[in-house]
Amino acid sequence: MAPVTGSRQEPASDRFFPAHNPRALEYPWLAENVPADLRGLRLLDVGAGVNPLPFVFADRGAVVVTLDNHPATRDPDHREHWNEWGSLDYSRLDPRISSLRVAYEQSVIAQPFDCIYSVSVIEHLPWRIRRQWLGKFAQQLKSRGVLLLTVDLVPDTDLLWNMSEGNVVEDAAVHGEFSTLIDELGQTGFAVADTRVERRIPATRVDVGFIKAMRR
Ligand SMILES: C[S@@+](CC[C@H](N)C(=O)[O-])C[C@H]1O[C@@H](n2cnc3c(N)ncnc32)[C@H](O)[C@@H]1O
After folding, report:
1. Whole-angstrom Cα distance, residue 57 to residue 146?
2. Ligand 1 proximity of 145 Cβ (cutoff 6 Å)
3. Residue 12 vs residues 49, 55, 97, 133: alpha-carbon distances, Å
4. CA–CA dist 14, 2 (Å, integer)
5. For 154-199, what is each residue's pLDDT tens digit?
6. Residue 103, ligand 1, Cβ within 6 A
7. pLDDT of 60 above 50
8. Which pLDDT value is given to residue 80?
9. What pLDDT sits at residue 133?
């Protein structure tokens, strides 16, 4: 995580950015692919960790909810050891954003969303939980709501990244591929509008897949 140079008075979105090169592709893609006019729309950031997007979308008029269940609490007053993983209460930095500390598969949120996004999270889950998440995305999105996912891939393959904080998640044979996830979305009531893969991203050990889907 880059050092924080801003004062509290500077725009929140300038305050931090993970020191992980793929995010320089993922965040601009997210910012381009959410609905153009975000005013009054409800957005959910699943597995938000510590990232700048909630501030960017709140600045564009969205009502943003973040959700993460990481055991590490990220304290805005002590950022020396931050990375992109962790539980951050974004409302401490920006009252327009609310944050839930819960596993997504166990979360209960009554009001539906116009857009749900998740940056580099779902590939870290066992396939059974991944499928629960897809069902939950479908339940929580309004009809024609937008789902945006980015996923790490094993370099020069289409295999979904199979590690989470240094631990193997499950056997690669059951974990699945990028196309598995796309097929699962189709089976869960999504129309997949766009997919792409970026490879050979400098100074990183992953390729990255991008998926834009719409709830039917
Ligand atoms: C690789 S980090 C990505 C963080 C952030 N989205 C970003 O842009 O860098 C994965 C995050 O997903 C969270 N996560 C993993 N499993 C989760 C679950 N079951 N429910 C909610 N969050 C989860 C982790 O705690 C971690 O903060």
Report:
1. 14
2. no
3. 16, 6, 11, 29
4. 11
5. 999 999 999 999 999 999 999 999 999 999 999 999 999 999 999 9
6. yes
7. yes
8. 84
9. 98
- Ligand 1 centre distance from Cα of residue 101 (Å): 11
pLDDT score recorded for residue 14: 52
Mutate to test the pocket of ligand 1, among 121, 150, 165 (most ligand atoms within 8 A of CB): 121
The Cβ of residue 107 has, within 10 Å, a number of other Cβ atoms equal to 16
Domains of the chain: 12-215 (3.40.50.150)
- Binned at pLDDT 50, 70 and 90, residue 200 comes out as very high
Whether ligand 1 lies within 6 angstroms of the CB of 123 is answered as no
Q: How many CA atoms within 13 Å lie on the side-chain side of 169?
A: 22
Assess contact for 96 and 22: CB atoms under 8 A: no
Q: Which of 142, 168, 153, 98 is nearest to 120 (CA)?
A: 153
pTM of the full structure:
0.94
Under the banding of pLDDT at 50, 70 and 90, the label for residue 16 is: confident
Select from 149, 89, 88 the least CA-distant residue to 124.
Answer: 149
Burial of 182 (0-12, 13-18, 19+ CB in 10 A): middle
